[in-house]
Amino acid sequence: MTTRRELEHCYDALTALPEGWSSWDDLMRITLEEARKAEAIDEVPVGAILVAPDGTIVAKAYNRTIIDHDPTAHAEILALRTAGKHLQNYRTEELVLVVTLEPCLMCSGALVHARIRGVVYGAPDHKTGAVDSQLNSFELPLHNHAIWHRAGVLQEECSTMLSAFFKKRRKQIKAEKESRKSRSSS
Ligand SMILES: [Zn+2]
What we know:
By secondary structure, this protein is of the alpha/beta class. 44% of the residues lie in helices and 14% in strands.
């Protein structure tokens, strides 16, 4: 029988920080840089990186759905594609995903298919988050692969970036509507 101590040891190994890194915050800071690249091209600012146990960042990505005309071009999916090519394997079992926003249902499904080891995210997504907020998709009994996860790493920074983006976008939409209205009435 597995003892509690052995189980705790397994869990510690599973959730361990990649080598050479002293905190998840440091990895999230790199992920935030990716999110900023999305913001710079008017995409929803979400960044994702995949990290190997030896500390190597195997993939970095940011949202590109609008620019690529691709509803699947979420940061997580793009990072998985890069890592798969790099490792020459569609399964990336050793890797941990660090992402600024709680993954959606599509990305959670892809992460299960990739057999990812763990997910660390920053901001919760109250509308479409499929890890904790709307659904605990990593715990569904239909999956035979369990993913460890941790929420709320640099949550403040990740949330602020997203809310500032949406605020700016609402303003732009309002300004466009008003200029259209004034053009049609003149
Ligand atoms: Zn997604």
